[in-house]
Amino acid sequence: MRELLAEVRAWQAAGVAVGRAVVVRTFGSAPRPAGASLVATADGRIAGSVSGGCVEGAVVAEIARARAAGLSRVLRYGITDEQAWDVGLACGGTIDVLVEPLVRPEIAEAAAGRGGSAVVIPLPSDAPRDEPGPRAPGAGEPPSPALVVDADGTLRGSTGAPGADAAIVAAARAALDRGGATVVEAVGRQWLVEGFAPPPRLVIVGAVQVAIPLARIAREIGYATVVVDGRAAFATRERFPDVDALVVGWLDEVADEIGLGPSDAVAVLAHDAKLDEPAIIEALRRGCRYVGAVGSRRTQADRRARLRTAGVGEPDLVRLRGPIGLDLGGRSPAETALAIIAEVVAERSGGSGAPLATLAGR
Fold first, then answer.
1. Are residues 260 and 288 in contact, defined by beta-carbon separation less than 8 angstroms?
2. What are the tens digits of pLDDT across the range 164-198?
3. How far is residue 197's CA from residue 178's CA, in Å, rounded to a whole number?
4. Of the options 1.10.443.10, 3.40.50.2000, 3.40.50.720, 3.40.50.800, the CATH number for the domain spanning 201-344
């Protein structure tokens, strides 16, 4: 939903009504995960996706119907569903989609926030349960008030039952840890829990040419971006107009200032040992989840020898990615940036970096 927020706000500011659909759960080979959203306006504009294209037209029509009736419904789409045969999922999967006549303000607030929160939406009482079979759509009901769980576990609102509140808070905190959405049962109904974790952050050390497309691509896929360089002539807004923070200094000097910590990914690009190695040591010392550095294999071997001499232990050296990035074969700054961010994403998501066709046994 975060990537749709700017469009939603622009439409709303222009006085255009906006409704939303969100994937509640998936069965089989679904193209989009739970939490994927699509928004549509009264005048026919759309953004986002709940299925990768195969049921979008039907969902947009359902948003218009929900807006006209003022009702929320959960609809099931799948190739085995007679109600959705003409818009079935080509991949053979099944998805449940919550369609609402509005974009809830709690959703917009959570998507815009940097601190992390989960929005808990009570599903209509006739929403399908957790089994992937054909089902006629229910009549729906007016949207019920949502609950919000902050990153520290504070619950805004209540189900009226302390035990159910505790279960919802636990599910919300889990959704914040892993992202995405899930469904929980409490007080006799289903609740959609959408986690809006703080955006991941990429710290780029060295405002070199590769850093320019790297910051741009990282921002495009949802990363907060920080560029750090002690050379003021390199670290300029003209070169990096859209980064979240531009810091003149070196990482070991400004780590406290930027709050460097375990959830950060760090790409060290200055290509100068006296600049790169203090940054690597600091990032490893603080347990950053990803630490990568540019340099050839020979440069990496020499660097690791110096890092050992500086007191860096073998467990930390194993975590250091160098040469940085995946082997995509490109050599231009943009291609190098793509290889770097691909490795960062693979590390964060637990991906192998292998071709999907290979993993599928082809």
1. yes
2. 999 999 999 999 887 789 999 999 999 999 999 88
3. 8
4. 3.40.50.720
